[in-house]
Amino acid sequence: MTKNALVVDDSPSMRQMIAFTLREAGFSVTEATDGADALKQLDAAAPRLIVTDLNMPVMNGIEFIKHVRANVAHKFTPILMLTTESNDALKAQGRAAGATGWVVKPFDPQKLVQVVHKVVA
Amino acid sequence: MTIDLQQFRSAFFEESVEHLATIENGLLRLESRPHDSDLLNEIFRAAHSVKGASGMFGLHDLAHFTHAFESVLDRLRHNTLPVTIARVNLLLRASDMLHVLVDCARNNELAPAQAAELTAQLAAETDGAVIETSAVSAVQSPSGKQEFRITMRPARELLLRGQDPTLLLRELAQLGEIVAVSADTTMLPELPVLDAEACYLAWTIVLATERAEADIRDVFMFVDDICEVVIERVSSPGSEAIGSVDIAAIAPLAADVISDVAASTPARAERRTTNDRRSSQSDSSSIRVSTEKVDELINLVGELVISHSMVNQLVSLLPTEHSLRLEEAVAEMGRNMRDVQERMLKVRMLPISSVFHRFPRLVRDIAMSTGKPISLVMSGEDTELDKSVIERIADPLTHLLRNAADHGIESPDARRAAGKPEEGTITLAASHRGGNVVLEISDDGPGLNLKRIREKGIAVGLLRPDEVVSDEQLQQLIFQAGFSTSATITDVSGRGVGMDVVRRNVESLSGSISIESQPGFGTKFIIKLPLTLAILDGMALAVGEQVFVMPLLAIVESFRATPAQVTMVMSQGEVVQARGETVPLVRLHRILGIPNAVENPARALIVLIEHDGRRFGLMVDDLLGQSQVVIRNLEANFRRVDGVMGATIMGDGRVALILDVQGITRLGGRSATRTTGAPVALPELTEAAYAVA
Q1: CA distances from B330 to B217, B323, B325, B625, B627 (A)
Q2: Side-chain half-sphere of B373: how many Cα atoms within 13 Å?
Q3: What are the Cα distances from residue B319, in Å, to B310, B313, B323, B650, B658?
Q4: What gap in Å lies between CA B232 and CA B643, rounded to an integer?
Q5: CB distance B56–A107 less than 8 Å?
Q6: Is the dihedral of CA B541, B544, B545, B546 positive or negative?
Q7: SS3 for B17-53, per residue?
């Protein structure tokens, strides 16, 4: 059965690109525009992977990651953060919130797939 | 697998346009709300999105510039740099450059030299401390096969990060060959006290690989804070026997344990949602549709309406006893058709705010460069118009606004002397009124200077020195080509020419523009536009063997004239008495060159037309009835013809040309006093119209 990936980013073009890349890699993809939207779709999507931007309106990435980890069904779901800064503080914050790993933007799609393979069986 | 992202480029550009608008509008609002952190964050995020995405597409100039821009915004939103007018001005200039860079990126052009200058200025704001993006770490070159002993000791909470140790092992295995692996189970507690969500195991792996140690360490890059990793080179390969465990044998046992444990953790289970409903994929309440698709649909609906009216006509010819039910069905179809048509046209309607939003910036810039404080008050921004009308009204509106700011409002000194508040006010209002959209641009300046207009009119030869003209006619003079009253050619509104272009643009939208001016109090321009360019309420007129459609709005009344009502006046040509006044008589057959028309006014029909405050009598053979017609564009398929604004197909299948009132007025005016170039030969025009239809 195809695994679902939940992609969260307020930029439609980023979302489309990531969704496209993940579909090519064999995932089915659910898209969300921000943390709150993603939480609404979380149960129905039942993702095996979550890819999220950090800077989003309504609910940002760090908040979203904390909420996901508080959901018992997703305590162990791999979560990747998208970050444009090689800002160590932000990565540390993300990890403290429960993020599994990160991809630095801009990234080439191959890189995203590589990182996904690091964290998804 | 190579993945091509270029298909998303156009989506990126569309999205960038929105982000840039957010940035510009945000910056404009920032001046009056410098401490609004939500606003600062909004602007930051928009810049951040553009930066991230542009990097993805390899648009480095844009990414680099946006990065510098974003850095300043970041300081502002974190309050490490205060918002000042100078800074906002710099950011606004940078915002303009962003537009330029996006266009360059879209057209594959190089960025202009000023981009580097502005980048430096932005960097100066952050003391050059632009957040550096780290270089991609270089791939280590293989250094011959070696053996490494790797010890990994994860902290208890490793699993809670969504990490899976087996994936780490798998990744290590991909670097070379795992010679031996053993698990350290010494920390594993007894089952009753075991926390299934904690990681108690550690592993020692001997890996034979050609890769460098740094590559091995990279495997653990996400867990370097919660996993102790020791990597040692093994001096003599093969000498280490670390009691390998047969993982294959253990795996199925482990699987059983895991599923049992999962089933027995109810104590900490939070409330699970019991309903299985599938939430809608994405709660977006709108979808993007290309305008071509919408236009195609509207065309098709137009065709449907025409076909329907043909069916209707045929049905009306049937003997009634058979056709009653058919008539009813066709009438019902007609109602549904009109409904669909109306809704389709509404699909193309957008709020005029998309045009209005650029004006605060425009007025602000003019106010700054002329040293006159001016405030712009806008209302009715959510008034909706057809998309193409909006696009084509943008330039005329911009011109009128520029004029109002540059010439309309007087200097602060003059204002003070006149007892007015120092700050000038320009009002821009949009509203729906009686099937039209009305746009009003007014200023509270000194109003039109009629004396200067008169002088200029004489100077450029539009008026004879002794000619007596009303104030209204003087005002209309500014719409004539070649007219300009600004004493100097200002940088801002160019040569002051363009009012004629404004009027032409408005008319080409089947709209009208008029002026109201009160000396000392201000000037107001009123533009009336139809809600849609696609359909028209018209009156069908017969002239010769042709059918024409006249927009209903322009018709006052129609009547048969008695010979006594039609006379010839020396300087003006034929005139007719209508409603107590004398108006010019315009023979449609003559100005359009139609043969076999009724030439005797007593036998013809006079349609009293009103346009722009002026009236004239249009002489036609007969009235054929009122109908709502679908406008087919003639210009796109033939060329622009004076007096004709499109074509349509009547219920009987005949092609009818739709008359343009303004054009007819002008043609009529010219033919009454002097001959001009020959009108387009009608047969040629009709042929083209048939091709269109």
Answers
A1: 78, 10, 9, 20, 16
A2: 8
A3: 17, 13, 7, 22, 32
A4: 91
A5: yes
A6: negative
A7: HHHHHHHHHHHHHHCCCCCCHHHHHHHHHHHHHHHHH
Rounded CA-CA distance A114/B10 in Å is 27
Residue B5: list chain A partners with CB under 8 A.
17, 20-21, 109
B-chain CB neighbours of A95 within 8 Å are: 161, 222, 225-226
ipTM value, please give it.
Answer: 0.91
- How many Cβ pairs closer than 8 A exist between chain A and B? 137
| Under 8 Å between Cβ of B614 and B549 | no
A 11-70 residues with CB below 8 A of B? Answer: 11-14, 16-17, 20-21, 24-25, 30-33, 37, 40-41, 43-44, 53, 55-57, 69-70
Instruction: Give the integer Cα–Cα distance in Å for B526 and B515.
Output: 6
Count of residues making up chain B: 693
Q: pTM to 2 decimals?
A: 0.52
Q: Do the beta carbons of residue B298 and residue B348 sit within 8 Å? A: yes
- DSSP classification of residue B480: S
- In sequence order, the β-bridge partners of residue B177 are B208
Q: How confident is the model at residue B23 (pLDDT cuts 50, 70, 90)?
A: very high
**A interface test, pick of B1, B3, B133, B258 with most A CB neighbours within 10 Å:** B3
| Greater pLDDT, B684 or A70 | A70
Cα gap B248→B181, rounded to integer Å: 13
